């Protein structure tokens, strides 16, 4: 994925600013329940631990998720990347109880990759000229593309 990021929550920083300011807060993930579900515990904020739930490759499925403070969907929210699939996935993510919800697109989430769709317009599955990335209702989900977010 290339280009700018639409961020709806928090403060964005560059990778260099993040690494310089808080190198001790790098999270380590471990597989918890199959290849698509990982849990990580980031550094504590004060004395309060932060629980990060990291999922990927859900491909339109909406599994039950463990509780946490931060939910990260790390790619392939959809099967084909149509407007309807992306919007349904965003609605599901937005309905989760996690305080912060972050989406990073995968290769199946083609609606979010404008450069790819410009090159391969036939991959615009199930959408019309009126259904574009800008028309999605994000519902408090932060979309990151080539950027970092401090929450």
TrEMBL record:
Spell out the residue ranges making up region: Disordered: 1-26
Its organism's taxonomic lineage begins at: Eukaryota, Fungi, Dikarya, Ascomycota, Pezizomycotina
Cross-referenced PANTHER family, in alphabetical order?
CALCINEURIN-LIKE PHOSPHOESTERASE DOMAIN-CONTAINING PROTEIN, METALLOPHOSPHOESTERASE
Q: Which CDD domains match?
A: MPP_239FB (cd07379)
Origin species, per record, is Sporothrix eucalyptigena
Q: Please give the name of this protein.
A: Calcineurin-like phosphoesterase domain-containing protein
Renumbered to this chain, the Polar residues biased-composition regions fall at 1-19
- Write down the InterPro entries for this protein, in alphabetical order: Calcineurin-like_PHP (IPR004843), Metallo-depent_PP-like (IPR029052), UPF0046_metallophosphoest (IPR051693)
Q: Which residues form the Calcineurin-like phosphoesterase domain?
A: 63-128
